Amino acid sequence: MSSVHSLRQEKTLVLPLIVAVAGLALEHEILALGPAISVVAAVVLIGAIVVASLRIAHHAEVLAVKVGDPYGTMILTLSAVMVEVLILAIMMSGESSPTLVRDTIYSAVMLDINGILGLAALLGGLKHGEQPYNDDSGKTYGVMILTAMGISMVVPEFIPVEKWQYYSFFTIFAMIALYGLFLRMQVGTHSYFFSYSYPRTQQRRQEEREPEGENEPATLSIAVIVAGVVLIGVLAELMSVFLNVGLKDVGAPVALTAILVAAISAGPEILTALRAALADRMQATVNIAMGASLSTVILTVPVMEAIALSTGQPFVMAMSPVQTVMIAITLIAAAINLNDGETNAIEGMTHFILFATFIMLSFLGL
Questions:
Q1: Would you call 253 helix, strand, or coil by DSSP?
Q2: What is the pTM of this model?
Q3: Is 124 in contact with 282 (CB distance < 8 Å)?
């Protein structure tokens, strides 16, 4: 009976499944109706992807509760990055802009550090005052993000086109080496960097607030995550086709699509991070926001670089001057704010203002 009840809880995946089947069956008919209808169809598909992503995030959170930190937040961030990489890989196979991957990674870092962490620290600070966490995690994440983005998205500006392939191969191996060492630290001898020992009274309150479905079998969660990723792949392929047709003559900036992809993958993380901050569990919020940024850069870059090398597609990873300045300000602010083991509303507000600036610059096409 418990397994039947668990399966009934997955009824929310029926909607994305119906949308996927309808999209596959009516793809040519929808495209024949013109750009406006294609945009509407793309919006419906985006909604279906968000629904499927939320369900994946739920089961990732269930697994996270079972294994605890730092493994738990690693599962949450990896599930989000997996969705992002899948969508980008599918969109790259179409007529996408050569800067789409670069803009998506940049948007994801802005959203994770300035949007998620900023809003969470702001709301959590207003509710609880200063919120403690392990400052080793903030420092480690910060220096890793700075190194990974510097190697993969700043230095390429100075690499001649004829030597790009050699540097691209180097970048792939550098990212793999960085992540391999980081993973060993996160789950090995330095795992205490990414956890925080809360008072017993607070631990009891946290146990009372565990996510609904925590008793679901791990095998079901794994199966739903796998099935959900496959479903998102189908939906993303259809969305890419409809978006390309719908926005082809509109002249919409590439950054709009990049922000969209970043927001889709980060949507579930936003809810989890905010819940953690409001529950006075800032360590989980830091792990999610900073861990998602690091995973996005360090895992997305080698996969996308490898695809570009194998297919010969035009590919630009070097950030624009405005993007480089915004990343520099963000990482400097994060280094200062995440240096003392406590967050507060002022620190959250500084990052959230940076996020608002990023949105404003995107609307201006910068």
A1: coil
A2: 0.82
A3: yes
